[in-house]
Specification:
350 residues, 52% helix, alpha/beta, 15 helices, six-stranded mixed β-sheet, disordered C terminus, two-stranded antiparallel ribbon, disordered N terminus, 8 strands
Amino acid sequence: MGFSLKADQREQLAGPRSRSSRWAHSRAGKLLRLAEGTAYWAAVAPALARLPAAMGYRIACWRGDCIFRFQGGKRTELTGSLRLVLGNELSPAAALRVARDRFRLVSCEAVDVMRLRDGARPLRRLVEIRGQEHLEAALASGRGAILCCGHFGSFDSGLSVLLTSGFPVTVIGRPSHAYAAGHSSVERWFWERFYTRRIWRYRRRPNIEPGPNRFKVAAVAAAVLRANEVVMISIDAPPLDDDQARTIDVPFLGRQARMLPGVVTLAQVTGAPVLMAFLYRAADYRHQVWEISAPVPVETDTETALGRCAAEVSAAIRKSPAHWFFWSTGALARLGLTRDPDHSTGPRAS
């Protein structure tokens, strides 16, 4: 069980705020961060993706380290959230290391996306699929397969690798940039151009976007499964206000979190097996491993089955907390893990 940290304690975890850190919070600093992020995704990351992998990802990690040092506010929020939720599982020094690693992973993710070219071969050479036999056995039954995961690692580009490896994947979910609060039409266009299009180029079908007509969404997903293909659902997405009434409280990271039970309901209705899937990045930052489990039992009541899936996501996060996307205070609040009122859950930290 985690414990609460006051604002001044969170600040101490990141160290005293320097003059450059205070300047980073000014209007000029925000414009500089926006310009740097735009240049990185539009020009630098594509260039790094064409370098030898060891060099490209090393430079991406260096960029992540620079952002980690410069963005004191983000560093403080991240280390505070880690300590708040994981408590004594992480010392202050360990929380800082995880936070630094999180910034590195975000920078490396951009390089992953830019390596999705030429049939995704440049990225596919760096990704190993463990548990492929579980997915093949599930599809051999002819009822399709459901991959249950969290927003963990570079999973978006990793799903494109699965498809180019012979596993047609359709995602149930919304593109985060299209629904993030405060994003202008220009920002949405940018993420569409440099992120979404590159990711979806290797998807069999467009995302199945959740909407008010849940039966229609379920029918489309069931049709994909009847075609003996793969549907991917992330269960850790913070529920929107309209979805809160349908959530179920399940144990998650030592607390109770609010999650939607769609993955279990879909499996029970269609008979498709549910397999857990997580994409881990190796210590060298360029190689990655898909870990796909054997089917998870979902024949019991919905709450118990969803709890099993949530426990697997919790275990993956505890194993490698830097891989998880939702450490912002707003995302944690929507999941019910904290009481922070901020609800900002933009697409990427840097």
